[in-house]
Specification:
Elements: H1 2-11, E1 16-19, H2 25-42, E2 51-56, H3 59-63, H4 65-69, E3 74-78, H5 79-87, H6 105-121, E4 124-128, H7 130-133, H8 135-144, H9 156-165, H10 168-178, H11 187-196
Parallel strand pairs: 1-2, 2-3, 3-4
Helix pairs in contact: 1-2, 8-9, 8-10, 8-11
Length: 202
């Protein structure tokens, strides 16, 4: 399968390889070594190789995001799994609803740290999962510095309306201020901000 991807990459330069559930730098380096070995056998040069990226979806990857950014071409943050592992709870369990909130200050600070490290390394960084498909949560992501969101088809229109109605500089300043809060969740404040500034979140 890897050989097939490398062959295809020569014909289709936009093809990319993304590694899921990465938790150590060694995992990335092992794959890079394998790619280089197979590329040599196929007679491919570095210019012909597909871009290599990783999913950031476990806390261990967040802790070494700076080192990972030096080894890959892009990040894709899987917020569903990352939040579930961070809060140590099943997001589908109604008894744990109050514990699981991606608009809590700790989780938003973590998301902000990831995109800051990606930007510093010049690594393309996108977000997928339910967070990128929820208008108010996507608004918070924009405030943290994210500019690439992967929304579900059903939510695309709503997220697009939010983006068209938000002032990026203003929401960035607000989110930075809001992160100083000690409240359990910042959702009410973000909703109020959207209402007060005419941002379409529904």
């Amino acid at each position: 399968q890897l050989r097939a991807l490398l062959r295809a990459g020569k014909e289709y330069p936009t093809l990319q390889i993304m590694l899921p559930m990465v938790s150590t730098l060694e995992e990335v380096n092992a794959v890079k070594t394998l790619i280089q070995t197979q590329a040599k056998l196929l007679g491919l040069t570095a210019e012909n190789l597909p871009a290599l990226g990783i999913m950031i979806e476990v806390p261990a990857a967040v802790m070494i995001a700076e080192k990972l950014a030096s080894e890959v071409d892009f990040f894709s943050i899987g917020t569903n799994d990352l939040a579930q592992f961070t809060f140590a709870c099943d997001r589908g369990n109604p008894r744990l609803t109050e514990r699981y909130d991606v608009l809590s200050s700790p989780f938003l600070k973590m998301m902000g740290d990831i995109v800051a490290k990606a930007d510093a390394a010049g690594v393309y960084c996108s977000v997928c999962g339910e967070m990128a498909s929820n208008p108010v949560e996507a608004m918070a992501l924009i405030g943290l510095g994210y500019r690439n969101l992967s929304s579900s088809g059903a939510s695309y229109g709503r997220v697009k309306s939010m983006i068209r109605s938000v002032n990026v500089e203003e929401v960035t300043d607000y989110v930075k201020t809001l992160l100083k809060s000690q409240k359990r969740t910042l959702r009410p404040q973000l909703l109020a901000y959207a209402y007060d500034h005419g941002i379409e979140i529904y």
